[in-house]
C-alpha cells in the first residue's frame, strides 16, 4: 500500500503540479557547509552560498480507480530533483585560508512517484 506521509492530497488536475528549483536566500546557507580539512582545521561557508537551489513544491496525490479490480488505489507523487549542477562555495578555514568547495544545486525538478526505486534497488522514502 502506498502512503504519502507528510504530504497533503492535492488537486487531481494536471496543472496542479508546482515543482521547481527554488533559490535559498544566501543568509540561510551561512555556515551550512562544514568540512574538516587536516592542518587547515574546520572550513566553513561563513558567507553563505550564492545561487544554491533545492527542489520544492507540491505534486498531485490522491486515489485512482483500478479498471481491472474496480477498486480505488492511492498514489503519491513527490517533488524530486532530476538534474543538478556543481556550484562553487568559498569556505573559510581555521587558519584563515579560503578554499573552494563544490556543492550540488538543483536545476531541474519534476513530480515523480514517492515510492520510486533507486538504482541500488532501495525504495526511496520522502518525509
From TrEMBL:
Record-annotated CTCK domain positions: 55-115
Keywords: Disulfide bond
Gene3D superfamilies associated with the record: Cystine-knot cytokines
InterPro entries membership: Cys_knot_C, Cystine-knot_cytokine
Disulfide topology: 55-109, 59-111
Descriptive protein name: Jg25502 protein
Species for this entry: Pararge aegeria aegeria
Gene behind the chain: jg25502
